[in-house]
Specification:
L,D-transpeptidase catalytic domain-like; 5-stranded mixed sheet; 7 helices; 12 strands; alpha+beta; about 240 residues
């Protein structure tokens, strides 16, 4: 039973995807994804218009483990990002801290990027997108694992699971942005909101220094409302 549950996130990704031309910018699609996108597009467009935002504008996602929140931000006309909607995360596994190895049942933390090829319209768990774990930082620390995603069906071992209605909206927003020309969208995953006060309360935690690195990216976006460019140098995150 434990082994079967451990395959949930992998199965959500490793179902056969429709063939796409190599290098194509548009995400793959399926009857399921097209039906979901058609269903949620009218209410999304109305809600976006209320905030003077448009469907197809670039998106940015932040995830906060402790409060089980996923934020979708959309770029406005002035190129700053506006919070469009906060979705409750239905389920994730593990505790606060990064994922270290395959099979540890831990959901990752860090800075990730999602391209069109990482979108899965045929997921075993409704719809999904692959976070891109392990990223350059994870690999520098020899962390292992694969197929770590945001998906539907409200069940997860190592992934961030949403309710199906939520993932449909999130997927539609990301799909539209990628089709409109956004090459990748950033997903920043934090243990909690990294204010100075919050981080100070975890000073004795083994991951305090790691979270201090994540705070650079958190603070940059809080200040500018533009997703920062983040690199990895000498096994550390660097905000450029």
């Amino acid at each position: 039973m434990r082994h079967r549950l451990g395959l949930i996130c992998m199965a959500a990704w490793l179902i056969a995807l429709p063939a796409r031309h190599a290098g194509a910018a548009a995400p793959a699609e399926s009857a399921r994804s097209k039906a979901a996108i058609a269903r949620v597009t009218p209410p999304l467009q109305r809600a976006l218009a209320e905030k003077k935002l448009t469907l197809g504008a670039p998106v940015f996602i932040r995830i906060f483990k402790q409060t089980r929140e996923l934020e979708v931000w959309v770029r406005a006309a002035d190129r700053r990002y506006v919070l469009f909607k906060t979705y409750p995360i239905c389920a994730y596994s593990g505790g606060l801290g990064p994922k270290l190895k395959a099979g540890d049942w831990q959901a990752p933390e860090g800075f990730y990027r999602v391209a069109a090829a990482q979108m899965n319209p045929n997921s075993s768990y409704h719809l999904s997108f692959n976070l891109g774990y392990p990223n350059a930082y994870d690999r520098a620390w020899q962390r292992t694992g694969s197929a770590l995603m945001v998906h539907g069906n409200c069940v997860s071992i190592g992934c961030y699971a949403m309710r199906d209605g939520g993932i449909e909206e999130i997927y539609a927003l990301a799909d539209a942005a990628l089709r409109a020309g956004q090459p990748v969208f950033d997903v920043h995953v934090f243990p909690f909101r990294l204010t100075g006060e919050a981080l100070a309360s975890y000073k004795a935690d083994r991951w305090h220094d790691f979270w201090q690195e994540l705070k650079q990216g958190y603070d940059a976006f809080e200040t500018t409302r533009v997703p920062p460019v983040i690199a990895v140098r000498n096994r550390h995150y660097v905000v450029q």
